[in-house]
Amino acid sequence: MDNRSEIECWLTDMDGVLVHENRPLPGAAELLQQWRDQGKPYLVLTNNSIFTPRDLSARLRASGLEVPEEFLWTSALATADFLKSQMPGGSAFVIGEAGITTALHEAGFVMTETNPDYVVVGETRNYSFDAITKAIRLIGDGARFIVTNPDATGPSADGPLPATGAIAALISKATGREPYIVGKPNPMMFRSAMNKIGAHSENTGMIGDRMDTDIVAGIEAGLHTILVLTGISDQAEINKYPFRPDEILKGVYELLETEPIESDV
User: What distance in Å separates the CA atoms of residue 135 and residue 168, rounded to the nearest whole number?
Assistant: First the structure.
């Protein structure tokens, strides 16, 4: 049953749904405007933990999409939100960039290399052998192991790059310890996003392009799930999984309401 009409709040993935290689996908700008016009709370989500919301907002604006920073929810913000709830005022040794370090600072965490409560691994293009060695030793000494997102590779113009999940696997192999991963497909990423906008699962829709992260997490969080085919998924990919999204659309442009909306103007 299509219960899209009952959706009052929206969560949407960013890459492959709204943008592709810094270009807006068809209908993306119009859909964001539609939500604004209708006063529907929404958040744009990304597992990427490199950038702060302000950086991401600027990058999206350069792509032609207006998404104010308060409408962005990253795996770094979700990780900081989780750690703040677990251990307010805690400490962390961080491998990552501004996205995760800024989020943790704003959550009241102290960055330290001495007996931290947590080792937090996020996305970065500058992994250092020394930092990885330090992380392994700190985890061995009892620090809890947290990872912002499980993505093993990330895209680049020259091909795939090793990403957070690959570095986490290296640390896991060396320590024998598995991390707690906050980003998708952990449904906690969606739950924390819903908390931020005061949404409830029974009237929230989630748009994604990946079955193995967006859709499975959306299902587990109890959301109305919509898969768009503008990212990495096609019918053959969908058929690999034992679960299904509520809807499969060619792109977000299919969510635009074509009937004229009555106005006082």
Answer: 10
Q: What is the pLDDT of residues 176-220, one digit of tens each?
A: 999 999 999 999 999 999 999 999 999 999 999 999 999 999 999
Predicted TM-score (pTM) above 0.85: yes
pLDDT tens-digit map of 124-176: 988 899 999 999 999 999 999 999 999 998 877 788 889 999 999 999 999 99
Catalytically annotated residue among 13, 117, 214, 246: 13
Per DSSP, the three-state class of 184 is coil
27: alpha, beta or left? (left if phi > 0; alpha if psi -120 to 50):
left
Q: Is 117 a catalytic residue?
A: no
Task: Note whether 34 and 10 are within 8 A (CB).
Answer: no
Q: In the block, which residue shows the tokens 């800024």?
A: 102
User: Which listed residue (2, 15, 158, 264) is catalytic?
Assistant: 15
Contact yes or no for 251/25 (Cβ under 8 A) = yes
132/23 Cα distance (integer angstroms): 34
Burial (CB count <10 Å: 0-12, 13-18, 19+), residue 35: middle
Query: For residue 118, what are the β-bridge partners?
Result: 92, 144
Q: Is 37 a catalytic residue?
A: no
Nearest-angstrom CA–CA distance, 79 and 128: 22
